[in-house]
Request: fold
Amino acid sequence: MPDVPASAAPPRGTLVVLGGGDDDPLLTLLAGLLPSRDAHIEVLTTATRRQPARTAAAYAHSWHLLGCPHVRHLQVDETNPADDPATLTRLRRAALVFMSGGDQERLTDFLLGTEFLALLQHKYQTEPGFVVAGTSAGAAAMAEFMLVNGHGWRSLLGGQIEVKPGLGLLPGVLLDQHFAERARYPRLLHAVLAQPQLLGIGLSEETGLLIRPGQPVEVFGEEAVVVIDAAHATHNNLPGLPDDEVISGHGLRLHVLTAGQQLDLAQRTVKAK
Reply:
């Protein structure tokens, strides 16, 4: 499978991410994006540590009610390697790969460096109509980087967050989920000050991003998406701040977007619709 460089043409597939919470509206949205209701859907439960089969069955039931009969549980975990030939065959056939919530580090632990991930990236880059989607941890893992540690006000202290590589489907972006509900503003501020080349995006629950080929990113859902851009900050005491010292930044740009509003990732600009 050929590598797809970061400078390649824009992806021809569609990517959808949700910040967690009730995902029934998301499933309806995804069903409408399929080339047909008979298309093959694979539910990847790698992030879901407890009862992954039950989680996959619940999603399959919901999609069956929407008229999508071909929904299967795609297992990649401690006993099911990502590069198993049967797993790769199913991935090649899939029109939609949906990543459930849980622990996003499990997704990167089991997928980074695999043929499975290279194939997933290639399908997203080159296949019109292919959809990759995720909720909660399944959303956070999609970006180039993801936050895996940092809690409350302590996230404003040096050394109190942790950022790790994600699956790389959204280059130049760092995603966080359950954003408003779990008071994750401090840790996203810290992360973008530490790596200002990254655009920080916080997804509230029942709220997400629809990323279609050749179009600006569009917000959908009930709450808000927060975008933090530190690329042109006039003051930044990171990196190099000693542990437990308070971070400081001036001149950051912050946007709060609601359903129907749009974001141009390349230009880092927003548009009210």
